[in-house]
Amino acid sequence: MSTQPLPLEGVTVVAVEQAVAAPFATRQLADLGARVVKIERPDGGDFARGYDTAARDLASHFVWCNRGKESVAVDLKDPRGLALVRRLVAGADVFVQNLAQGAAARLGLDAATLCAAHPRLIAVDVSGYGATGPYAHRRAYDMLVQCEAGLVSVTGTPDRPVKSGIPAADIAAGMYAFSGVLAALVRRGTTGRGGPVEVSLLDSLAEWMGHPLHHGSHGSTAPARTGLAHAVIAPYDAYPTADGGLVLLSVQNDREWRRLAEHVLGRPELAEDPAFATNTARVAGRGATDAVVAEALAPLTAPEALARLDAAGVACARLNSVAELADHPQLTARDRWRDVDSPVGPLRSLLPPIVFPDAPEARMDRIPALGQDTDEVLGQLGVSEAEVKELRGAGVIA
């Protein structure tokens, strides 16, 4: 039985956000109990609403990043609309924005300006490349930052670099913005003061490049692109099975190689063979290493191969499709799926990864329609029905 509230209950967040990085950060806050008021343009809202119609006529990115939020449609270019948002921010604990570089400052919604006016406020500026430097005003879409950060250079095959199949730069920045807010809330709890937080996509993804960066920055060469293989570990790859599946395995040390050789390959002598006995030798002779593993797994079905590898204590997995992930037995067994309400009805969604066993389940409230909460939120600010009607008629709100 839960004995504590969700950790962010009572925290109010106002977000002027779009696309993925900032919305992903604030969705984490909403999941953990915060009230998140999302400010959107009246003429279409967050442009991620229009990326696709894959989620039963809703955009898949928007569905993923915006549950649990209140949508308020306000024209920030109109002084009346901007004044309303400033009133909202004055009563908030956290403000998050990821407008184009310089846009928030022109509106007086940058972190430095807001924190000077509201000492307890935590204000987060999410940018592509940071506030200064020669790249500060460049457009910073996810794929571009993946390239600038070198992720694409180490992803793919020897013949062809590829970007990550997920928006890695956006996700990295979103998670650092999320954790930055949490750290700032802890600090405010001890000092009584909020303050500005800065996160950039390039800084975030460059941090995630730590292994290849250190691998290639101290006199060695950067890791080569190796597809599903690992640049410095072998065997570490996907191997075909008799039923058309692909089974991945990873041997992290020479003890595991011995178990693989004895119990899966049926060739215990390879544990002592100088050409295979050490990881250095196996990487140097990667072709021969992969050949002996592939020969042993080829007659087996994927379930048979996985069972044999499991029994030998060798780390392994099956290469799943997205559809297979949606039906993954581990997610089902752990009851990780919930229905989230939306303008098109319930949509199946995963519970967030952070679990507090002594608190209520994560909040997974509805995905808002554009401006769904405008009237209610403005009413809470003390804006009269007549004023709301006038502002709507003038196109300041929707």
Order of helices and strands: EHEHEHEHHEHEEHEHHEEHHHHEHHEEHH
Radius of gyration: 25 Å
Shape descriptor reads elongated
SS strand fraction: 5-15%
- Tally of alpha and pi helices: 17
**Major sheet details:** 6 strands, parallel
Q: What is the number of strand segments?
A: 13
Counting helices, strands and paired strands, the structural category is alpha/beta
Estimate the mean pLDDT confidence. Answer: 95
Which segments are poorly predicted (pLDDT under 50) over 5 or more consecutive residues? none
Through-space gap between termini: 42 Å
Strand order of the largest sheet: 3-2-1-4-5-8
Helix content: 25-40%
Descriptive notes:
By secondary structure, the chain is an alpha/beta fold. Helix content is about 40%, strand content about 15%. The protein contains 17 helices and 13 strands. β9 and β10 form a beta hairpin. The radius of gyration is 25 Å and the shape is elongated.
Secondary-structure map:
Blueprint: E1 12-16, H1 21-31, E2 35-40, H2 60-65, E3 69-73, H3 79-90, E4 94-97, H4 103-107, H5 111-117, E5 122-127, H6 142-148, E6 156-157, E7 160-161, H7 168-191, E8 195-200, H8 201-208, H9 210-217, E9 236-240, E10 246-250, H10 254-263, H11 279-284, H12 286-297, H13 302-312, E11 315-318, H14 322-326, H15 329-333, E12 337-340, E13 347-350, H16 374-380, H17 385-393
Helix pairs in contact: 1-7, 7-8
